[in-house]
Amino acid sequence: MEFNKIISVNGKPGLYQVVSQSKNAIIVESLTDKKRLAINSTQNVSLLENIAIYTYEEDVPLLTIFKSMYTKTEGKEAISHKESGNKLAAFFAEVLPNYDVERVYSSNIKKVIQWFNLLVVSGMDFSKVEAPAKETEKE
């Protein structure tokens, strides 16, 4: 399973792995039940690789946060995303202490923890996932 092929589909629960692409659809496989489906090109899709969380300094990529969570939980699932908002915020603050409290909502934290747990259950080993190389700017 490659992190750069994991997506979230707006309006559908869970995470999906991109299997193939056609002219006007993406073929994806659910990480939970392994069922395949076609996602229309008009649906809103987000690559997890492109998501970042606001901090007071700079935005932190989701992969960096997942790696930090993986280290903290020693490769096991984190707390349940159904815990109280205060517990979720406290856990998230341990993983990313300088996150922007005003711009990162409780619902964002809940979703990040839920996605992390889904990926861990699906067998994602964040200790072996490499961060994408940044493109060098041409001047």
UniProtKB/TrEMBL annotation:
This is Uncharacterized protein. It comes from Polaribacter filamentus. Residues 51-119 form the DUF6852 domain. Residues 4-48 form the DUF5606 domain. Pfam families: DUF5606, DUF6852.
